[in-house]
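Summary for the steering committee. One of the milestones for this cycle was to obtain a three-dimensional model of the protein with flavin mononucleotide bound, which we needed before selecting residues for the alanine scan. The sequence and ligand used are listed below.
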Amino acid sequence: MKELKIGDLTAKLPLVQGGMGVGISLSGLASAVAEAGGIGTISGVQIGFREPDFRENPLEANLRAMGPEIAKAKANPNNIIAINLMTAMRNYETYAKEAVQSGIDIIVSGAGLPLNLPKYIAGSNTKIMPIVSSARALNLIIKSWLKSDRLPDAVVLEGPLAGGHLGFKMDEIQEQTYTPLEDLIGELKDALAVYENQYHVNIPLIAGGGIHTRDDVHRILGLGADAVQIGSRFIGTEECDAHENYKQAFLNATAEDMRIIKSPVGLPARAIRNDFLDAAYTDGFKVNHCFGCMAKCKPAEIPFCISKYLVDVAKGDEGLVFSGANGYRINEITTVPKLVEEWFE
Ligand SMILES: Cc1cc2nc3c(=O)[nH]c(=O)nc-3n(C[C@H](O)[C@H](O)[C@H](O)COP(=O)(O)O)c2cc1C
């Protein structure tokens, strides 16, 4: 099986675990994936949600929690660990700099174009990987990064079947007029080849969204992706940091429960239907406290506070359960080494 080389980092397997917030992929899942030979990703979104002062001081709580979480994931110094920071987050720059200070190997950013990320990691050995869903977005990012003499160390291509926020238009998702992941791989490889040839570098392409089985993994690698990114399937593992109730929501879900919503962030997103979601998109839930998550949030115009209901569900209460399109196919709780064996051995 081909290794995944990102700069001077080498993962034994072409596998990246997608960052899942809030509190779904922390050091438990990320270190298990890294130890199994892939790259583990901690979600940096509201990472301090368990701190006692999180409600009053989310920024301080998040900054305080980040270093210890990264240190736990990297307790085994061979582990390659990334952190996922959404570009649309308030204080994105502060979080990115804190992650670098804490010795993170890679920063991965989507949900917007992380145009200034090279400036925030300047002078460090931290690698940077944008998440894109089109060659157009990739070109915009690279043209901006080249002004700082930087190229991506690798690129994550997230297709239309992914979980959480999606880089496609609402009507493309609903009418299924999007370009499938399989076709996007070729487009993105071609777009990357232009820069690879010009600058004599190799920029690995990591493709994800809806990858569930061994066949999926090998089909995507066979189409030219250098690695796969997998999120949802890891929720059905003992090592996943999610609350038991969260994992149970996946075990209980059926194909009919998979929903596309317009998230308070303003992007389409995929989630599992539950009583919370039904109520949120009928009457809505008044926002009565701000957790400072989004740079551009308009509390009066959103159906609910996304931070509140992601944190609630992370703690085991009802709330927003993001999932990839195949999340309902999880029907047992297994372990990370067993999944890795199923996919790669
Ligand atoms: C519960 C959940 C939370 C997620 N949270 C984030 C996030 O905070 N930031 C992000 O860039 N992607 C997020 N994602 C997307 C994943 O990182 C991953 O790329 C995607 O889900 C891959 O598709 P799959 O889940 O079908 O494997 C999330 C996905 C899920 C299922």
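Key point for the committee: The chain has a mean pLDDT of 96.
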